[in-house]
Amino acid sequence: MRTLCRSVRPGRSPRRTPRRVSGPLAVLLAAVLGATACAGGADPAGPAAAATGGTAPSPTGGTVASPTGSAGPAAPVPDTLAFTARTLDGAAFSGAALAGRPVVLWFWAPWCATCASQAWTVAEVAPKYRDTVPIVGVAGLGEQRAMKDFVTEFELAGTPQLDDRAGALWRRFEVVEQSTFVIIDRSGAVVHQGFLDGEDLTRRVAALAG
């Protein structure tokens, strides 16, 4: 019978038993020696735990969080933000990532003159409040090439711009015309839906951030 682990001092070979023991006594002796050797072994979490501050690789290849970790619970996702989409660049986008903050959704079309007049304000305001009141464009009613050209012309690449050519988000929020702003508060409730000029947009976003 073989023990599962054994502690050996560096530079020394394990001592051999002076004589072979057989029968029930050998089984009992092996069990006792195995338990003693394992009890004095290294931390089962291994060096990875010490290097990562209390985390270690899990059997599935991820990490097991330390009970003393500082990460807090994620904000609950309201129904209004329970959607997924793609940006005009093709990246995956999840509305759930916006949960816990006020959010402004801007529904625009690339051929819309009113949208063009508002685009400069969005390009100026959105980066300033990116972390506190995200502004997300939802492009529809047009071709993707025209939408991308609109984003380039009005320097909107610094804010998420969703490709909603199929109209899924327009229907979800019951938007029937451009340009429409949908403002969602921290709890997920829609507190405004409709037109906003540049001054009104700036004022509302600043108030939400405060």
Structural domain count? 2
- In the CATH hierarchy, what is the architecture of the largest domain at level 2? 3-Layer(aba) Sandwich
Task: Give me the CATH superfamily of the largest domain.
Answer: Glutaredoxin
How much strand? 15-25%
> What's the overall geometry?
globular
Most strands sheet: 5 strands, mixed
Order of helices and strands: HHEEEEEHEHEHEEH
pLDDT below 50 for ≥5 consecutive residues: which ranges?
1-72
For the record, the CATH class of the largest domain is Alpha Beta
Topology of helices and strands:
Layout: H1 24-39, H2 47-51, E1 56-57, E2 63-64, E3 84-86, E4 92-94, E5 103-108, H3 113-125, E6 135-139, H4 144-153, E7 161-163, H5 168-172, E8 180-184, E9 190-194, H6 198-209
Parallel strand pairs: 5-6, 6-7
Antiparallel strand pairs: 1-2, 3-4, 5-8, 8-9
Describe the overall structure:
The protein has 210 residues and is α/β, with parallel strands linked by helices. The protein has 2 domains: 1-57, no CATH class; 79-209, 3-Layer(aba) Sandwich (Glutaredoxin), CATH 3.40.30.10. The chain contains 6 helices and 9 strands, in the order H-H-E-E-E-E-E-H-E-H-E-H-E-E-H. The strands form 3 sheets. Strands 7-6-5-8-9 form a 5-stranded mixed sheet, covered by helices on one side. The chain has a two-stranded antiparallel ribbon with strand order 1-2. Strand 3 and strand 4 (92-94) form a beta hairpin. Helix 3 packs parallel to helix 6. The chain is globular. This is Thiol-disulfide isomerase or thioredoxin. Residues 1-20, 44-73 are annotated as: Disordered.
